[in-house]
């Protein structure tokens, strides 16, 4: 899947969820799309089922490191997972900001 395809997928998920996509929404959508139980999906991510449930329901946020690990484990864009994790932290802090994340450009040393 190309980056544009994933962006289209993100826009579609936001339209279905009725609002801005959260990392929990994304994980839930991936899990349901793969038809995997919470227990099996949590095991794949290396967390407990209850922790996954809390993330999917928006009761817990993820660190950037953990979001990137999840992205790699699931084969998705680290950029999108990081953006959603940061947005969750911003919203948890009560700030009315929108996060944008772009991949760093590699520089020659």
Describe the structure.
This protein has helices spanning about 5-15, 25-35, 40-45, 50-55, 65-75, 80-90. It is mainly α. It has one domain (about 5-90): lambda repressor-like DNA-binding domains (434 Repressor (Amino-terminal Domain), Orthogonal Bundle), CATH 1.10.260. Helix 3 (about 40-45) packs across helix 4 (about 50-55). The protein is globular, with a radius of gyration of 14 Å.
Helix content: 55-70%
Shape: globular
CATH class identity: Mainly Alpha
How far apart lie the N and C ends?
A: 31 Å
What would CATH call the architecture? Answer: Orthogonal Bundle
Strand content: under 5%
Count of DSSP helices? 6
Largest sheet: none
pLDDT averaged over residues: 88
Fourth-tier CATH superfamily name: lambda repressor-like DNA-binding domains
SSE class = mainly alpha
Number of domains: 1
The third-level CATH topology is 434 Repressor (Amino-terminal Domain)
List the helices and strands and how they pair.
Elements: H1 3-17, H2 23-33, H3 38-45, H4 49-56, H5 64-74, H6 78-92
Which short descriptors sum up this protein?
109 residues; mainly alpha; 434 Repressor (Amino-terminal Domain); 6 helices; 62% helix; 0% strand
């Amino acid at each position: 899947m190309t980056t544009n395809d994933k962006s289209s997928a993100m826009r579609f998920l936001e339209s279905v969820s009725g609002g801005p996509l959260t990392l929990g929404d994304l994980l839930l959508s991936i899990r349901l799309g793969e038809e995997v139980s919470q227990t099996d999906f949590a095991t794949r991510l290396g967390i407990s089922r209850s922790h996954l449930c809390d993330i999917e329901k928006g009761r817990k946020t993820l660190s950037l490191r953990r979001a990137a690990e999840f992205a790699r484990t699931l084969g998705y864009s680290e950029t999108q997972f990081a953006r959603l994790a940061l947005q969750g932290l911003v919203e948890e802090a009560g700030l009315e900001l929108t996060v944008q994340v772009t991949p760093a450009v590699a520089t020659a040393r």
